[in-house]
User: What shape does this take?
Amino acid sequence: KREATELTFKEVVDNKENIRVNNEYTTTINSTSNMIKILEEIGLVERYVGDKKRISYNYRGQRFDIDIWSKDVYPDPYMEIEFTNVNLMEEILDEFEIDRKNVTNESINELIEKRK
Assistant: This one.
């Protein structure tokens, strides 16, 4: 079974109080080689190549994604949580006893750069 290849553009709308708000645009890619050619033609430069496995859950209407990247890209699994509002975020973090020191609004690119 061939797994889907997706391209996502995340537009940062707001980034304050340790909360990042994005608009996300995702499309399924049928030809990786054509996608790469298009990205190169518009001037984008490859930062890294890696595979990501994602396991997604919904809880109280919120999306929890556990991402596991290729070890050479980012060696540790991490969870991305997409909340609909700040109050619910605080409630769920408290409910699961998630220490705020383990919460960040940094993107995967920022996390990768910090590890270098």
Q: What stands out?
A: The radius of gyration is 16 Å. The mean pLDDT is 88. DSSP finds three helices and five strands in the chain.
